[in-house]
From TrEMBL:
InterPro entries: FAD/NAD-bd_sf, FAD/NAD-binding_dom, NADH-Q_oxidoreductase
PANTHER family in the cross-refs: 64 KDA MITOCHONDRIAL NADH DEHYDROGENASE (EUROFUNG) (PTHR42913:SF3), APOPTOSIS-INDUCING FACTOR 1 (PTHR42913)
Gene that produces this protein: yjlD
Record domain FAD/NAD(P)-binding: where: 3-288
Alphabetized UniProt keyword annotations: FAD, Flavoprotein, Oxidoreductase
GO molecular function terms listed in the Swiss-Prot or TrEMBL record: NAD(P)H dehydrogenase (quinone) activity
One example of a Gene Ontology biological process annotation: aerobic electron transport chain
Name of the protein this chain belongs to: NADH dehydrogenase-like protein yjlD
The keyword Flavoprotein belongs to this UniProt entry's keyword annotation: yes
Cofactor: FAD
Length: 355
């Protein structure tokens, strides 16, 4: 049997399984999926789990079942492309013919002293639960600092405001205006929502240190009762330990077939891949589509295409609580109830196709 090993049940590997586990899958292919949890987690919804507006059953999707698919629950501790082997924490060793690395990311603290020790995270379902427990336990009038005003920070701040109207929420943004890389109309709408709902956006911030109960923004000290870090990501440690060329924030440099240049039997999908796009579920799924096509060429002993299609992104959708949202689609800005319904619809379709 030819062994395909998938590391991580994230968006990229879910798309790969969706496309491979059909009647067209060659009978001599054995697929092994490795993950620390026996389900797929909707990472794009972790902000709502941390804010306490959904239960974790809402952000879980069952893994596919197929006679040629085996699931291994465990923690990956080492990946050896030279030996074509993956090592797990419990001592298991998984050999492979092809490997897809989709182990995701961890927070990038940018060497800010105290950030890792004194902030909470929404990078995994377990960390999001811990963050929820901390935020749930805060008393009325407590101050929550959210570091990073990207999509995750915006959605967490707005969802937390609806969940806990009694909290003081400060959202720290390095840019002069929120979502500064996008049209001003979009920025103004999001800023207006925060103004109306009493969420303070601290523009042009620079968090230089985090201590228990204190944030340092430039030279100013700000008392806080809890801090959630949403200011960037980097690949997990086991991926950064692979001896291969690294790019931005330690992500792995790939060839046009999403393979490691020195190891053409190793593919990388999602947040670990060094691509000219911001990491997102959408990028991971588009990568997954292309990796499936490459794998089928390899298994059929066919030459790979000289040119791979460019990944074309459709835009993004964001929520402002449960009733309002914003979107940037095909260079057009959509705001309000329609944008929120669009996001809910996309999530419903995703769960329907994968669940």
């Amino acid at each position: 049997m030819r062994k395909l090993v998938l590391l991580g049940a994230g968006y990229g590997n879910m798309r790969i399984m969706l496309r491979l586990l059909t009647k067209d899958l060659p009978t001599d292919i054995e697929i092994t999926l490795v993950d620390r949890t026996p389900f797929h987690s909707l990472k794009t919804e972790f902000y709502a789990l941390a804010a306490g507006t959904v239960s974790d059953t809402v952000v879980r999707v069952p893994l596919p079942e197929h006679k040629q698919l085996k699931f291994v629950e465990g923690e990956v501790t080492e990946i050896s492309p030279d030996k074509k082997c993956v090592y797990l924490e419990d001592g298991q060793q998984l050999e492979y013919d092809e490997l897809v690395i989709g182990l995701g990311c961890r927070d990038n603290y940018h060497d800010v002293p105290g950030a890792e020790e004194h902030t909470y995270s929404i990078q995994t379902i377990g960390k999001s639960r811990t963050t929820y427990e901390k935020l749930l336990g805060l008393g009325g009038g407590a101050t929550v600092g959210i570091i990073g005003a990207g999509l995750s920070g915006i959605e967490l701040a707005s969802e937390l405001r609806e969940s806990r109207p009694d909290l003081t929420i400060k959202l720290f943004d390095r840019s002069p205006r929120i979502l500064g890389d996008f049209p001003e109309r979009l920025s103004n709408y999001v800023q207006g929502w925060f103004d109306e709902h009493n969420v303070e956006v601290v523009a042009e911030s620079n968090i230089t240190r985090v201590e228990a109960g204190v944030l340092y923004n430039h030279e100013e000290t700000i008392p806080v009762d809890a801090v959630v870090w949403t200011a960037g990501i980097r690949p997990v440690t086991v991926v950064q330990n692979i001896e291969t060329e690294k790019g931005n924030s330690g992500r792995l440099v790939l060839n046009k077939y999403h393979q490691l240049p020195k190891y053409n039997d190793v593919y990388v999908v999602g947040d670990c891949a060094d691509l000219p796009y911001a990491p997102s579920a959408q990028v991971a799924e588009e990568q997954g589509e292309q990796i499936v096509k490459v794998l089928r060429h390899v298994w059929n002993e066919e030459p790979l295409p000289e040119k791979m299609p460019e990944i074309k992104l459709k835009g993004f959708l964001g929520s402002l609580g449960k009733k309002q949202g914003f979107a940037y689609l095909a260079d057009r800005t959509v705001t309000g109830r329609i944008a929120r319904l669009l996001k809910s619809g996309v999530l419903w379709l995703y769960k329907r196709h994968n669940g």
